[in-house]
C-alpha cells in the first residue's frame, strides 16, 4: 500500500479509525474477500460518520483515485448479497458473490 486514506480533520480520532477500517475492508473485499455481514456492519458505522451522500461520493472518488479500488462496487455487491454470502471483487474487477468454500 503506497497511498493515504481520505478523512476529515473534523472527525474524532475514533471516527478516523472507523473510516480507515471501512476503506481497509474495501481493500480486503478486493484482495481476499469478506463476509457480507462484516462488511455491512463496517459500512453502517461509516455511514454514521459520513451521512451525506455527496461527502460519501467524494471520499469514494478520493480513495479510488489513490488505490484503484471502487468502494461503490463493493457496497453495491454488499447490498445485493444475502446474509452468509462472501463478497470478493478480485483483481480483475470481476464480482463474485456466494458462499465461501474453504
Automatic annotation (TrEMBL):
InterPro entries: BH2638-like_sf (IPR023324), UPF0223 (IPR007920). HAMAP family: UPF0223. This is UPF0223 protein B4109_0877. Signal peptide: none annotated. It comes from Geobacillus stearothermophilus (Bacillus stearothermophilus). It comes from the Bacteria. Pfam families: UPF0223 (PF05256). The lineage of its organism: Bacteria, Bacillati, Bacillota, Bacilli, Bacillales. Belongs to the UPF0223 family. Coiled coil: none annotated.
Amino acid at each position: 500500500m503506497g497511498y493515504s486514506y481520505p478523512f476529515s480533520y473534523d472527525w474524532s480520532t475514533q471516527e478516523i479509525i472507523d473510516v480507515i477500517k471501512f476503506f481497509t475492508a474495501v481493500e480486503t473485499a478486493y484482495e481476499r474477500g469478506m463476509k457480507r455481514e462484516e462488511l455491512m456492519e463496517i459500512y453502517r458505522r461509516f455511514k454514521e460518520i459520513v451521512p451525506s451522500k455527496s461527502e460519501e461520493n467524494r471520499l469514494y472518488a478520493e480513495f479510488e483515485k489513490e488505490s484503484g479500488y471502487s468502494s461503490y462496487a463493493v457496497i453495491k455487491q454488499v447490498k445485493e448479497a444475502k446474509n452468509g454470502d462472501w463478497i470478493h471483487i478480485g483483481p480483475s474487477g470481476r464480482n463474485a458473490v456466494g458462499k465461501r468454500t474453504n
